[in-house]
Amino acid sequence: MPVHNADIAAVFGEIADLLEIQGANAFRIRAYRNAARTINDYGRDLAGLINRGEALPKLPGIGADLSAKLEEIARTGHSVFLDRLHKDWPAAITALLQIPGLGPKRVKILYDNLHVRTLEELDAAVRAGRVASLPGFGPRTEANIRQAVAAHWSKARRFRLAFAEPYAQALAAYLEQTPGVRQVVVAGSFRRRQETVGDLDFVVAAASGPAVTKRFTAYDEVSEILSGGTTRASVRLRCGLQVDLRVVAEESYGAALHYFTGSRAHSIAVRRLAQARGLKINEYGVFRGKARIAGATEESVYAAIDLPYIPPELREDRGEIDAARAGTLPLLVERRDLCGDLHSHTAASDGRDSLEDMARAAALQGLRYLAITDHSRHLSVAHGLDPRRLAQQGEAIDAWNAAHPEITLLKGIEVDILEDGSLDLPDAALQPLDLVVGAIHSRFGLSRARQTERILRALDHPYLTLLAHPTGRLIGSREAYDVDMARIIRKARACGCHLELNAQPERLDLTDVHCRMARDEGVAVSIDSDAHAGADFRFLEYGIGQARRGWLERRHVLNTRTLADLRPLLRQAQAAS
DNA sequence: GCCGTTTTCGGCCCGACTGTTTTCAGTCG
User: Fold this and answer.
1) pTM above 0.85, yes or no
2) Which domain holds residue A563?
3) In this structure, are A136 and A210 located in the same domain?
4) Which end of chain A is more exposed for a tag (fewer CB within 10 A), N or C?
5) How far, CA to CA in Å, does A443 sit from each of A212, A375, A454, A468?
6) Which nucleotide's C1' sits nearest to the alpha carbon of A278?
7) Do A110 and A168 belong together in one domain?
8) Looking at the 3D structure of chain A, how many domains does it have?
């Protein structure tokens, strides 16, 4: 039974939860939480490494004790320490912490007084009216918990970034019209371009707080006001998104923006750096004693602790502060760096627009080349192409290219990688193409070993150029298939293949962590729209966000090359074989 | 439980809002 990094992180997270309910030292708890986050974000498979007898790398915040526990979990799949905690605390009790308004103290009180161990028992207790009389509780708290339990069961917890974007823009435009408002920015995970957001965090610079919070809570898409003060307010929109607002004075705007952009781990690391310099950072500014020395801009906040500006996408406490200090921050790829797109569909398979319309739409987006990569015959539900139809499409592409110098179409195919790792079309059909994009569309449930072997074999094919959506996940609806990404990345480098970062908002795989692994291994990533209609080229923006989170620079991204520079790289695999 | 330009011991980020209190604890971000 393989133990993934996420499994190890989950054990540490559960230990932290239980220690917290137990009332343990807060910094000990934080150590477990930090370790969980570090392990979750770590690119290489720690259990694999340990079981091969390799030395555990030095991870920040993981000392002798946690290293030993990490190794134990990696080898055995569980932790004696956690098992011991479970003797005192029922396993399901940590789920109670998911309920807004319930923290460790109240969970302990519920357990000690009413023996509440599960969400179901909590629900029964609040329905029976037994909670209000507990110490520290009251009728309002009881009612809030009752609502929160119901909400927890009915609502999805996180939203895709692209889902949240239009709501964020509309609300920002509304708030900008408030008299006295100078700046409106959506901070938080939205600004860090995380693939999903739990809520939207608005930071507003304005002369008067109450005027803004009042207008905010009166927004006509608000279904519920969760809290409202003079500088802060929280609401839920009818679409289900929670929105938090914070209003600050202009001189504090940068400090507030920095603080509410997070991530929390990044903020804490920055504050600690300030502390070491005798400074204090809060959302109002950077202070030496009572004197504010910075805070109007984010740049001034970083400058106060001798750091250059760190782009929001990097702010995850994954080494960006050390890089900033050393002057080695990446110069992150931008949308305007993209010269082309290597994955798109037309009405010939499951796209909606003609080849010509796709070409025109791509040109309007500033692209200079576009690969037409319809599905292959195995994907019959998508009217996949057989060799004859593929050859016909090639003729249409030649005709387009002869008449349209503004954008060049490349002949390609998104060929199915079959269960045994072979490709769905014969070499003779693939040979005339400019590029071959390989993808898995069937048998997602193979074991890790077989799925990995399947992909490795496909990468060995001399015509394969690019591995599309390498994990197959659909955010919120389908898990990634189980593969050894480190092996796939190393194999891609050996074969001269490239990996795709699919920019569809529900795919966005490679993930940020995988992008960084590819970068470290020297494998180029292609940021592709996988457009099925002319309007879909806008998705490239989301791919760029994910790539930036993965520390990718222009040079790491395949389709920032001009067509002349790109062409030899598309046939690199043949040269390598 | 971790860590060290002040440290191997004594620190560890910081403030607003709510609901409970009667001056503040708990929770959240």
Assistant:
1) yes
2) 335-576
3) no
4) N
5) 53, 17, 11, 16
6) B6
7) no
8) 4
Based on the fold, state whether residues A185 and A106 are members of the same structural domain.
no
Question: A329 phi and psi, to 5 degrees?
Answer: -60, 140
Task: Give me the residue label for tokens 């931008």.
Answer: A334
Q: What are the pLDDT digits (tens) for A36-74?
A: 988 988 878 899 889 898 888 888 889 999 999 999 999
Same domain, A127 and A270: no
- Return d(Cα A364, Cα A373) in angstroms, integer: 19
Q: Are residues A180 and A300 in the same domain?
A: no
Asked if A341 and A243 sit in the same domain, the reply is: no
| pLDDT for position A156 | 58
The C1' atom of B12 and the CA atom of A272 lie apart, in whole Å, by 9
Residue A58's nearest nucleotide, by CA–C1', is B2
Residue from A120, A157, A165, A264 nearest A542 by CA: A165
Note the strand B nucleotides within 7 A of protein beta carbons: 1-3, 6-7, 11-21, 25-29
Same domain, A440 and A506: yes
Residue A339 and residue A367 in contact, taking contact as beta carbons nearer than 8 Å: yes
Of A248, A265, A280, the domain-final residue: A248
Which residues neighbour A167 within 8 Å (Cβ) at sequence distance 6 or greater?
A200, A221, A237, A239, A241
Q: Which residues of chain A have pLDDT under 50?
A: none
Residue linked to tokens 């919120």: A476
Q: Which nucleotide is nearest to A260 (CA to C1')?
A: B29
Q: How many CA atoms lie within 13 A of A483 on its CB side?
A: 26
